[in-house]
Amino acid sequence: MNARSIVLEDGRHLTARAIIIATGVRRRKLDVPGEDEFCGRGILDSGATAKNEVAGKTVVIVGGGDAALENALMLGETAKRVTVVHRRDEFTARRDFVDRARQNLKIEFVLNSNVAAITRNQNVEGVEICDVRSGATSHLATDTLLIRIGVVPNTEVFQGQLELDKSGYIVADPNCATSLPHAYAAGDVANPRSPTISTAAGTAATAAKHIFSFSSGS
Predict the structure, then answer these.
(1) Nearest 5°: phi and psi at 63?
(2) 155-179 residue pLDDT tens
(3) pLDDT digit string (tens) for 56-67?
(4) Could you tell me which residues come within 8 angstroms of residue 188 by beta carbon, excluding any fewer than 6 positions away?
(5) Is the dihedral of CA 146, 152, 153, 155 positive or negative?
(6) Which segments of the chain does DSSP mark as H helices, in order?
(7) Pairing relation of β-strands 124-131 and 144-147?
(8) How many CB atoms lie within 10 A of CB 9?
(9) Is the model's pLDDT at 39 over the cut of 90?
(10) Rounded to whole angstroms, how far apart are CA atoms 115 and 140?
(11) CB-count exposure of residue 168 (10 Å: 0-12, 13-18, 19+)
(12) Are the C-beta atoms of 190 and 175 separated by less than 8 Å?
């Protein structure tokens, strides 16, 4: 069986009879001015761990899926006000999340709008909002910002080497095998539909079992 070789960033080569790719995903960014500079200085990394941090403060959450609405509900327990900014007029989040958020008097919505920039001094002090229909812009003051607009698979390094779907996820068969012989993919990087810890563990076990079966000749 031919060996597979990978090249590390420092130039070292590693060779193996098979490779399991589990590079995961990363949170999608807004790619607007101020986003990188103020991470940790008003831009929250996690809503679940920031409930005490936002107590009595205003929060802007960008996104319209489960993560955005669930975080709005969590942070709404302690925050003074939570504003959800979403580029459409409908949400992709679960209906119960949406209904509960709409019933919460501390949660407001700015729909059909994008965040164009983050305004700041020493810390985040607001966001510039652009209406996607009219192009009109406005300023929304806030103490903190949480971005939940989806994730991106970490597959740039595999472009041109493995088959990827239109969203950049690795295409794998039921045995977790990719388009490259003896290269397998496990976890979120190949599973956009159910990105959970249990699924990641299951696909890793499937890949390992299949590798063992062909390496042992069984």
Answers:
(1) 140, 165
(2) 999 999 999 999 999 999 999 999 9
(3) 999 999 999 999
(4) 24, 25, 151, 153, 195, 200
(5) negative
(6) 66-75, 95-103, 197-215
(7) unpaired
(8) 6
(9) no
(10) 10
(11) middle
(12) no
